[in-house]
């Protein structure tokens, strides 16, 4: 997202008062435990188990994160910031098409860290009510900037859309997730994507 404008990715409800210290600790413990559980069990890990491991009740989890997508959005903020930073680094690359594909590859790598994330991101792209839209929209904007630059350079066809590329990228991540015995699959599919873009 060259020139991307950061969006408010906070999962907290607007409030006149800052979060109390104990509530902040619970919030941070829940995110930490969710990150571990998602990495170990996938994004469909038990929310009750996450709350128990964080030392809180399920009601406390839902007060901070009203649903699974809201919790996932909070967990993935660090990765989102890294992907946005990477898009800014690639915005001035000499080979705009290669920069775009490198950035798409970074998304595949991120999605591959958590089983089920690619599927959730694909679903969120079509559901404007999902909290994961807060991840999808800035990624879409960042990718659109890289795609536009590649198209302006003449290295990518003009009929390619960022929405199609993000869906394709999530599909590659999902295919790689389903084929753990083929660690090169994602790279092969991305190379095919590069050929199709030109």
UniProtKB/TrEMBL annotation:
DNA-binding stretch(es), residue numbering of this chain: 46-65
Residue intervals of the HTH tetR-type domain: 24-83
UniProt organism field: Streptomyces parvus
One MF annotation (Gene Ontology) recorded for this entry: transcription cis-regulatory region binding
InterPro entries (UniProt xref): Homeodomain-like_sf, HTH-type_TetR-like_transc_reg, HTH_TetR, Tet_transcr_reg_TetR-rel_C_sf, TetR_SbtR-like_C
One Pfam family it belongs to: TetR_C_43
Top-level taxonomy: Bacteria, Bacillati, Actinomycetota, Actinomycetes, Kitasatosporales
Name of protein: TetR/AcrR family transcriptional regulator
Region ranges (Disordered): 1-25
Keywords for the protein's UniProt record, in alphabetical order: DNA-binding, Transcription, Transcription regulation
């Amino acid at each position: 997202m060259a020139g991307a404008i950061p969006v408010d990715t906070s999962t907290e409800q607007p409030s006149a008062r800052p979060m109390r210290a104990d509530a902040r600790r619970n919030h941070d413990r829940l995110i930490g435990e969710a990150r571990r559980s998602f990495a170990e069990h996938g994004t469909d890990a038990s929310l009750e188990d996450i709350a128990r491991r964080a030392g809180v009740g399920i009601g406390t989890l839902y007060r901070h994160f009203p649903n699974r997508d809201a919790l996932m959005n909070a967990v993935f903020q660090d990765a989102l910031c890294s992907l946005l930073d990477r898009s800014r680094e690639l915005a001035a690359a000499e080979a705009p098409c290669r920069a775009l594909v490198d950035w798409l590859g970074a998304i595949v790598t991120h999605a591959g860290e958590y089983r089920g994330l690619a599927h959730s991101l694909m679903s969120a792209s079509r559901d404007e009510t999902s909290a994961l839209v807060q991840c999808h929209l800035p990624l879409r904007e960042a990718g659109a900037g890289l795609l536009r630059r590649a198209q302006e350079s003449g290295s990518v066809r003009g009929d390619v859309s960022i929405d199609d590329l993000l869906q394709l990228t999530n599909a590659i991540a999902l295919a790689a997730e389903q084929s753990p015995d083929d660690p090169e699959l994602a790279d092969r599919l991305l190379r095919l994507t590069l050929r199709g873009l030109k």
